[in-house]
Amino acid sequence: MAATIEAKPGAGSALDEVRHWMDGRTWEGPVERWGAIMNPATGEPQARVAFAGPDVVDAAVAAAAKGAALWREASLATRTRVLFAFRQLVEKHKPELAALLTREHGKVAADALGEVNRGLEVVEFACGVPQLLKGEFSENVSTDVDSYSIRQPLGVVAGITPFNFPAMVPMWMYPIAIACGNAFVLKPSEKDPSAANFSARLLADAGLPPGVFGVVHGDKAAVDAILGHPGIAAVSFVGSTPIARYVYETATRNGKRVQALGGAKNHMVVLPDADLELAADSAVSAAYGSAGERCMAISVLVTVGDVADRLLPKIRERIRRLKVAPGDEPGAEMGPLVTKDHHARVVSYVERGEREGARLLEDGRKVRVPGHEGGFFLGPCLFDEVKPEMSIYTDEIFGPVLSVVRTGGYDEAISLVNANRYANGVAIFTNDGGAARRFQNEVQVGMVGVNVPIPVPMAYYSFGGWKSSLFGDSHVHGREGIHFYTRGKVVTSRWPDPHHRGVNLGFPQMK
Q: Are strands 44-51 and 33-39 parallel, antiparallel or unpaired?
């Protein structure tokens, strides 16, 4: 949870303010509580963000309900034009948006730009909504009777999104929801909220009517108000498994449709025949990119046979060449963790791993960044000889910690993966096509990479895991996103003619 700042006269006057967005503009109402937005590279507060209570959420939903009533009647051509204009504006302003991500999250500039580009892919997918919303038609299902299906918007829907991808994950949700004719209320992470407001302004500039997209900031009070609000028909969520379960159970109990994506413990299985240069590059990139703060990061390296002895020296060589620095510094490859509390949590897992008997080959706690001693930096950590009962294996750490588990053969490796309670993403590295095909068939995980360490699907396929990595039956974006934000309706029609057959109290039958 973000640190809170009391809303006293003059409090935080030297800090920039991030306020709620509703009805097409910044909300200027009174604020009872503020949260601190930290600079991860320095450890100092750089801005403050308004925290919403139930009254602010009520106002945002009321504005969204008005917007939804008009927007659902907008033609598909109108919706598409707005989305195309939004896409052009995001493309134009990518550097500014990426800079916001670096400043508030800490990720390096290249990673931030990559995040925006991946979000844009979903915007582009949503621009094809006229094709995606097409129904079916059957003529003359009975004499002079036609039947057809249509999909219609839900009304007001909401998204609750995490700190690690403050631009991309919301873009997995709201472009599709809006394209389908809904109004969308976004509750971004309070740790790095500015990307949400930046996107809101671009949507308004693209011609989106007031009320169709709103942003409320805050902590659990805002989340609970969204989950219980009778005016919200559906909730999309990405975050940790305990919170995903809470969101799913609370929102469904209140009659809402829910897609809640939870945590991960992604494995990368390396077979003896794999290209070890590729495997080493991939393991380092996928484990330590964005300081490991990715739900698709590789956190467990599963080596088969003698692979560990041949692969680990290559990985360690690459780790020692990584540049850990503030995200806006030229050449930086890995930035700080997002908050002081999260930094302390990840460090505690490193300490626990040592106590439990794992062998710490690379200790990121030793990393020092001159001039940024107060920043939340932790270098790459690499453990060998990790056992499945250790906490560094069982728990989602969400930091730059890679655990190596040694196995004797393929069967042991896949059994290890399938026994894990998380099932978000997995990768196998091999030059054996038969082994890869068998693996993709047998592994019990939602997203699979073959010689691809982070198998995030393209926008026209859906993103989501299995087991404790997903609550609900719908993944995000792709066709599943279209179906999540709409509901089906079937129409059976007959136009009157002078030869109708009179009253018939029997059950309707097609003839």
A: antiparallel
The reply to whether 368 and 481 lie within a common domain is no
Residues annotated as part of the active site = 295
What is the rounded radius of gyration, in angstroms, for the C-alpha atoms of the chain? Answer: 25
Q: Which domain holds residue 445?
A: 266-450
360 neighbors 352 (Cβ within 8 angstroms) = no
Strand runs labelled E in 44-192: 44-51, 137-142, 145-153, 156-160, 183-187
Q: Which of 139-143, 254-258, 275-279, 482-486 has the lowest mean pLDDT?
A: 139-143
Q: Are residues 153 and 220 in the same domain?
A: yes
Which residues are CB-contacts of 247 (< 8 A; sequence separation ≥ 6)? 160, 223, 227, 235, 237, 239, 258, 260, 471
Average pLDDT, the chain: 95
Structural domains in the chain (count): 2
For 494-505, the three-class secondary structure string (H helix, E strand, C coil) is CCCCCCCCCCCC
Residue 87 one-letter amino acid: R
- Asked whether residue 508 is domain-assigned, the answer is no
pLDDT at 146 > cutoff 60: yes
Query: Do 217 and 335 have their domain in common?
Result: no
Q: How confident is the model at residue 505 (pLDDT cuts 50, 70, 90)?
A: confident
- Whether 501 is covered by a domain: the verdict is no
* Burial category of 89 from C-beta neighbours within 10 Å (exposed 0-12, middle 13-18, buried 19 and up): middle
Question: Domain containing 219 — which CATH number?
Answer: 3.40.605.10
Strand 234-238, strand 156-160: pairing: parallel
pTM, full prediction: 0.94
AA identity, residue 376: F
**Which helix (H) or strand (E) is 201 found in, with range?**
helix 194-205
Does residue 181 have a pLDDT over 50? yes
Same-domain check for residues 318 and 414: yes
Neighbouring residues of 194: CB distance < 8 A, sequence distance ≥ 6: 18, 37, 47, 100, 103, 104, 166
Give yes or no: residues 343 and 198 share one domain. Answer: no
273 Cβ contact list (under 8 Å, min separation 6): 430, 431, 432
Residue 499 counted as domain residue: no
For residues 297 and 160, membership in a common domain is answered with no
Kindly state the average pLDDT of the residues 216-225. Answer: 98
pLDDT (average), residues 281-303: 98
Residue count of the chain: 511
Longest dimension (CA), the chain: 89
Q: What pLDDT is recorded for position 423?
A: 97
Residues 300 and 319 in one domain: yes
Q: 234 and 287: one domain? A: no
* CATH code where residue 391 lies: 3.40.309.10
